[in-house]
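Action item from last week, closing it out:
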Amino acid sequence: MMFLPIFFFFSLLFSFSQASVVDFCVADFSLPDGPAGYSCKKPAKVTVDDFTYSGLGKVGNTSNIIKAAVTPAFAAQFGGVNGLGLSMARLDIAVDGVVPMHTHPGASEILFVVGGTICAGFISSANTVYFKTLNKGDIMVFPQGLLHFQINSGKTNALAIVSFSSSNPGLQILDFALFANDLPSELVEKTTFLDDAQVKKLKKVLGGTG
């Protein structure tokens, strides 16, 4: 009987070794996205263009309330990264611009400063704050799921390239989650300890109702 577990082990190992190995899973945009990502495009239809992307070479439009722009190269824009567990983005921050407190539920992040000066930081689950002023050539890592921010703390426009440990890192901006929807003001007030006037003001600025 002692040989049965050994036999089972080697049978399982053999079955794994015979399993098909998929080199890549280029996103098939003709099919809907799902929790596991996009379905794979048929290999016969894959071309070299599926593995290249030029979108990060364009300056983002920072004419908005936060004076910042994120240009993503996630699976939805760059099908070649689908299923590979990585992606990138371009971050443009104008003078006085800010990327407010936000999280990426599905990925850790590394930010590389290409130009300008960025004050960046994150808050741990123990409420410990880690922040530092970053200059050209500096990098900073933001662990998965933690609240973090970036502020242009210099006198010129700032540019950074960001990499993620997922092809679909997800995004939730704290200010927008609280004030840019129809969550009733009284609930926001109770959960944030802000008064009614402050909540109504922020909802008006960010387009929320309720």
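Closing note: The chain is about 20% helix and 25% strand.
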